[in-house]
Specification:
There is one protein chain. 36% of the residues are buried. The strands form three sheets. The chain has an eight-stranded mixed sheet with strand order 6-4-3-8-12-11-10-9, with helices on both faces. A two-stranded antiparallel sheet has the order 1-2. Strands 5-7 form a two-stranded antiparallel ribbon. It has six helices and twelve strands. It is globular, with a radius of gyration of 17 Å. The chain has two domains: 102 residues, L-fuculose-1-phosphate Aldolase, CATH 3.40.225.10; 93 residues, L-fuculose-1-phosphate Aldolase. With 225 residues, it is an alpha+beta fold. It starts with a strand and ends with a helix. The chain binds zinc ion (ZN). The site of zinc ion (ZN) has 6 residues, from loops. Zinc ion binds next to loops. InterPro entries: Aldolase_II/adducin_N, Aldolase_II/adducin_N_sf, MethylthioRu-1-P_deHdtase_MtnB, Salvage_MtnB_euk. Belongs to the aldolase class II family. MtnB subfamily. It catalyses: 5-(methylsulfanyl)-D-ribulose 1-phosphate = 5-methylsulfanyl-2,3-dioxopentyl phosphate + H2O. Pfam families: Aldolase_II. Its cofactor is Zn(2+).
């Protein structure tokens, strides 16, 4: 074990910090730096994301992998992936977010990052996906109240709170709908409030905008979409 600032990491992570690019170079197709670009391409082909909209993160232990902002989803490469330590103090006017690896290209991390952090801190999520799915937007227009509810066949397999046991045919899934804001980052507080108020919800819908879903892994987050 060794320390990086106030954070403690295994020696393997510390050696990767000496060569940060090694955190995103792997022959393993399931490595987060390979999986994130593949999933983004799939989302684009499915019409779930257009242009640079939406976002995705994968957390493995104390490492968080996040896609960049401002890159078309079908063109994201492993070299564009940011790697951050988890946990870490919330950024403030006096302290920036801590990164272990940034892309050489001048890119910014996903603007969803503060919202992704909600799912790590409040649900111990291993992955969170945000899309501007037209189906999600339509649901927020048809259900004009504070929640979207659904029961029976289509909820089988959806996990309570995103990470608990799977719902059954007889359960009812209630997903909070929060109101949109001009900037993604400004959704952080209302998303956290909705997650606290609806602890069984496996996601949060954003009216006229899209959805955030999370799970213990990227494959299970994806299932919820
Ligand atoms: Zn968005």
């Amino acid at each position: 074990m060794s320390r990086f600032g106030n954070l403690v990491f295994s020696s393997s992570v510390m050696s990767a910090i000496d060569n940060p690019d090694s955190l995103v170079i792997s022959d393993d197709p399931l490595h987060p730096a390979n999986l994130i670009p593949e999933l983004c391409r799939n989302f684009y082909q499915l019409g779930w994301v257009t242009g640079t909209g939406g976002g995705i993160t994968i957390r493995q232990g104390n490492l968080v992998y996040i896609a960049p902002s401002g890159v078309q989803k079908e063109r994201i490469l492993p070299e564009h992936i940011f790697v951050l330590p988890y946990p870490q103090p919330a950024p403030s006017p006096h302290a920036d977010r801590i990164f272990l690896r940034r892309p050489a290209k001048k890119l910014s991390e996903s603007s969803c990052t503060p919202l992704f952090w909600n799912t790590f801190d409040m649900r111990d999520a291993g992955s969170c996906i945000h899309t501007h799915s037209q189906h999600a937007v339509m649901a927020t227009l048809l259900w004009t109240g504070p929640t979207f509810t659904i029961s029976h066949q289509m909820i089988k397999g959806v996990r309570i709170g995103g990470v608990g046991r799977a719902l059954s045919y007889l359960d009812t899934l209630e997903v909070p709908i929060i109101e949109n804001t001009p900037f993604e980052v400004d959704l952080k507080e209302s998303m956290a409030e909705a997650m606290a108020k609806y602890p069984d919800a496996a996601g949060v819908l954003v009216r006229r905008h899209g959805v955030y879903v999370w799970g213990p892994s990227s494959s299970l987050s994806l299932f919820l979409l």
